Amino acid sequence: MSNSSNVDLSHEEIQRYSRHLLLPEVGLEGQKKLKAASVLIIGAGGLGSPITMYLAAAGVGCIGFVDMDIVEVSNLQRQIIHGTENVGELKIESAKRSIARINPFVNVKTYQEKFTAENAMEIARDYDIIIDGTDNFPTRYLVNDVCVLLGKPTVYGSIFRFEGQASVFSAKHGPCYRCLYPEPPPEGLVPNCAEGGVIGVLPGMIGTIQANEAIKIILGEGTPLYNRLLVLDALDMRFRELSISKNPDCQICGTNPTITHLIDYQHFCGISPKTDANTISAEQLITATELSEKLATSTVQIIDVRSAEEYAICAIPDSLLIPLAELPYRLNEINRNAEVIIYCKSGIRGSKAVSLLNDEGFPKVKNLAGGIKAWATEVDEAMPTY
Ligand code: ZN
């Protein structure tokens, strides 16, 4: 941790932090430790919001953010550091203003870039603690590896639907994320919150736990979540605690590590630029405008491969809902002789469905490029988007 011996608190700060100063576990010395500390938060989103707001309020002296996203309306249900008036702004700018409102004594550093193997070491080097507030596997492994290589603790949190997890990884004290999950899940198998949804208070609960762990580590008080994975089921409201231990064969923190520098995390997680774009040929794509013209003159079968919840929000007229996971079992509902158009939200699940139907020998299948989002933009502006 940073040295707190040169740090002093003003009268105003003493008043502000008085409820901390009364705690034997914090006191004046602990508050100085908080002021001397620096914390880097990866992602100014759902988890990043409560983490940042509480760390700022608690008087952590320096908070860094890495995020390059813009605030969208669909973020506001859980990303409480941003408000309605911030829609369209950079998240780091909006978050910076929120912190200044909460506590002007915090020094904020912003990095408007993606956290990558190229810049991660340079950004993370100067911070005491790194907090993972991301929602994707490549960044999660990257954050882990950076922290192991730099010898820093990572406060981990993840959320999905009603379930959350939290832990503190520190190669000095216990396992790292790779000890727990040596390999990422196959690409596309685990849906993210954008696909599967998340209850808005969940990042508040998990993010607040992460903020608490960071404060404890800075103070050197209590028992951080080293060697423990906390699992929260917010639907039944149950906390479970799993014991986790260091894997001696861990590729990065084990006895004989094979990873000694940062790697290509997109590749490691099975994400190639091509799979994101399309695994199907350009001839198997149809634009929303082309589809709308086609519907006026000919009959096609339209299959929606999103979830029932998404279908309830909006759907192209006369489309048949077959969620992607059910598609292999419901092929008999698709007309082999007709021209078949597949669509999803933005085109990715649709292209997987087209590949599957190609393999099953359906002769005339196309994917709606850009999914129903493109339809809402190009054809039906009255359609709600999500
Ligand atoms: Zn490890």
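^ zinc ion complex. The chain has a mean pLDDT of 93. The first strand starts at residue 38 and ends at 42.
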